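Bit of a strange request maybe. I'm writing a small parser for C-alpha coordinate strings and I need a real example to test against, not something I typed by hand. Could someone generate the C-alpha coordinates for this chain?
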Amino acid sequence: QVQLVESGGGLVQAGGSLRLSCAASGLTFANYAMGWFRQAPGKDREFVASINWSGRSTSYADSLKGRFTISRDNAKNTVYLQMNSLKPEDTAVYYCAADRTYSSAARTYYYWGQGTQVTVSS
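Reply from user aminoacidic:
Good idea to test on real output. This should exercise your parser:
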Protein backbone atom coordinates (compact mmCIF):
# COMPACT_ATOMS: atom_id res chain seq x y z
CA GLN A 1 0.00 0.00 0.00
CA VAL A 2 1.10 3.55 -0.72
CA GLN A 3 1.80 5.57 2.40
CA LEU A 4 2.65 9.24 2.84
CA VAL A 5 3.71 10.22 6.35
CA GLU A 6 4.12 13.86 7.33
CA SER A 7 6.29 15.03 10.20
CA GLY A 8 7.84 18.21 11.55
CA GLY A 9 4.73 20.06 12.64
CA GLY A 10 4.38 21.68 16.02
CA LEU A 11 4.02 24.94 17.88
CA VAL A 12 6.13 27.90 16.82
CA GLN A 13 6.08 31.61 17.59
CA ALA A 14 5.21 34.13 14.90
CA GLY A 15 8.28 34.96 12.84
CA GLY A 16 9.80 31.54 13.38
CA SER A 17 10.46 28.68 10.99
CA LEU A 18 9.53 25.03 10.57
CA ARG A 19 10.49 22.37 8.08
CA LEU A 20 7.90 19.73 7.28
CA SER A 21 8.84 16.36 5.83
CA CYS A 22 6.77 13.81 3.95
CA ALA A 23 8.16 10.31 3.58
CA ALA A 24 6.66 8.20 0.79
CA SER A 25 6.60 4.44 0.43
CA GLY A 26 4.88 1.92 -1.82
CA LEU A 27 5.41 3.94 -4.99
CA THR A 28 8.20 4.83 -7.39
CA PHE A 29 8.81 8.24 -5.85
CA ALA A 30 10.73 9.77 -8.76
CA ASN A 31 7.73 9.19 -11.06
CA TYR A 32 5.40 11.35 -8.95
CA ALA A 33 4.72 15.02 -8.57
CA MET A 34 4.25 16.06 -4.95
CA GLY A 35 2.15 18.74 -3.35
CA TRP A 36 1.52 20.39 0.00
CA PHE A 37 -1.95 21.57 1.00
CA ARG A 38 -3.34 22.96 4.23
CA GLN A 39 -6.67 23.24 5.97
CA ALA A 40 -7.43 25.65 8.79
CA PRO A 41 -10.46 25.32 11.09
CA GLY A 42 -13.63 26.38 9.29
CA LYS A 43 -11.87 26.78 5.94
CA ASP A 44 -11.51 24.75 2.76
CA ARG A 45 -8.36 22.88 1.93
CA GLU A 46 -6.02 25.20 0.04
CA PHE A 47 -3.00 24.77 -2.19
CA VAL A 48 0.39 25.58 -0.68
CA ALA A 49 3.08 24.33 -3.07
CA SER A 50 3.88 21.62 -5.59
CA ILE A 51 6.97 20.16 -7.23
CA ASN A 52 7.44 18.02 -10.31
CA TRP A 53 9.14 14.63 -10.41
CA SER A 54 12.68 16.00 -10.75
CA GLY A 55 12.37 19.04 -8.50
CA ARG A 56 13.22 21.39 -11.38
CA SER A 57 9.72 22.90 -11.51
CA THR A 58 7.83 24.32 -8.53
CA SER A 59 4.61 26.22 -7.93
CA TYR A 60 3.38 28.22 -4.93
CA ALA A 61 0.24 29.91 -3.74
CA ASP A 62 0.68 33.61 -4.52
CA SER A 63 0.31 34.63 -0.89
CA LEU A 64 3.11 32.30 0.19
CA LYS A 65 5.77 33.10 -2.39
CA GLY A 66 8.99 34.17 -0.73
CA ARG A 67 8.19 32.56 2.63
CA PHE A 68 7.67 28.88 1.78
CA THR A 69 9.97 26.61 -0.23
CA ILE A 70 9.20 23.11 -1.47
CA SER A 71 11.99 20.67 -2.28
CA ARG A 72 12.50 16.94 -2.69
CA ASP A 73 15.18 14.31 -2.26
CA ASN A 74 14.38 11.40 -4.55
CA ALA A 75 17.14 9.28 -3.03
CA LYS A 76 15.30 9.51 0.31
CA ASN A 77 11.75 9.34 -1.10
CA THR A 78 10.99 12.53 0.79
CA VAL A 79 9.49 15.93 0.00
CA TYR A 80 10.00 18.95 2.26
CA LEU A 81 8.28 22.23 2.97
CA GLN A 82 10.47 24.93 4.50
CA MET A 83 8.29 27.57 6.15
CA ASN A 84 9.85 30.87 7.20
CA SER A 85 8.49 34.06 8.75
CA LEU A 86 5.48 32.16 10.00
CA LYS A 87 2.28 34.02 10.82
CA PRO A 88 -0.67 33.03 13.02
CA GLU A 89 -2.78 32.71 9.85
CA ASP A 90 -0.48 29.87 8.74
CA THR A 91 -1.97 27.73 11.51
CA ALA A 92 -3.50 24.65 9.87
CA VAL A 93 -3.18 20.95 9.30
CA TYR A 94 -0.66 20.47 6.50
CA TYR A 95 -1.13 17.56 4.10
CA CYS A 96 1.28 15.92 1.70
CA ALA A 97 -0.05 14.50 -1.58
CA ALA A 98 1.29 12.57 -4.57
CA ASP A 99 0.18 12.12 -8.17
CA ARG A 100 1.72 11.26 -11.52
CA THR A 101 0.57 14.65 -12.85
CA TYR A 102 2.19 17.95 -11.76
CA SER A 103 -0.67 20.16 -10.58
CA SER A 104 -1.84 22.71 -8.01
CA ALA A 105 -5.37 21.28 -7.86
CA ALA A 106 -6.16 19.08 -4.88
CA ARG A 107 -8.66 17.06 -6.90
CA THR A 108 -5.90 15.76 -9.20
CA TYR A 109 -3.87 14.18 -6.38
CA TYR A 110 -4.54 10.52 -5.80
CA TYR A 111 -2.54 9.74 -2.65
CA TRP A 112 -2.70 11.71 0.60
CA GLY A 113 -1.03 11.65 3.97
CA GLN A 114 -2.81 12.04 7.31
CA GLY A 115 -1.51 15.55 7.94
CA THR A 116 0.60 17.29 10.55
CA GLN A 117 -0.55 20.16 12.75
CA VAL A 118 1.23 23.51 12.53
CA THR A 119 0.30 26.10 15.14
CA VAL A 120 1.76 29.61 15.05
CA SER A 121 1.33 31.71 18.17
CA SER A 122 1.34 35.51 18.36
